[in-house]
Design goal:
CATH topology: Rossmann fold
Order of helices and strands: EHHEHE
Distance between the termini: 24 Å
Helix content: 25-40%
Number of strands: 3
Number of domains: 1
Shape: globular
CATH superfamily: P-loop containing nucleotide triphosphate hydrolases
CATH class: Alpha Beta
Length: 140
């Protein structure tokens, strides 16, 4: 997909085991998305102790929306972002924060951001452990 039209496809690959918690992951996700579209890291870095889970999830949603709005003015198509998270079951210990992040990414979908999330887990029953788990939201 990337070789056919590199501007229409942006993969972001992460291993959840490398992050101590969802907030740390979210900050890196924000920076990687920003860097991918603007060619540099944000000038004002997000400090872990200055944001909570809601703040960083909102920042990611606003970033995705801003990038999509920018592309609407410049290009005919929207870039499709795919966020792949390996070992996503590591975030099950902080499910509330991960659910919040996923909800904000899905909410940005309503603004035509074309962002998909793929979670890879070793736990075969992960989506069914809890009725309202963030992972089970994949069918939303």
């Amino acid at each position: 997909m990337k070789s056919e039209n590199p501007d229409s496809f942006r993969p972001f690959l992460f291993n959840a085991m490398t992050y101590p918690d969802v907030k740390s992951f979210s900050i890196i996700l924000y920076e990687k998305i920003y860097e991918s579209y603007y060619g540099e890291l944000p000038k004002k870095r997000i400090e872990r102790d200055q944001v909570d889970d809601e703040d960083i999830a909102c920042k990611i949603e606003m970033l995705l929306t801003r990038i999509s709005d920018m592309h609407k003015k410049t290009f005919m198509h929207q870039p499709h972002r795919i966020i792949v998270i390996d070992e996503v079951d590591c975030f099950s210990s902080n499910e509330k924060a991960f659910t919040l992040l996923v909800r904000h990414i899905i909410k940005s979908q309503n603004k035509n951001t074309q962002t998909s999330i793929i979670g890879i887990a070793n736990s075969v029953d992960l989506p069914f452990r809890k009725k309202h788990s963030a992972i089970a939201m994949r069918d939303c």
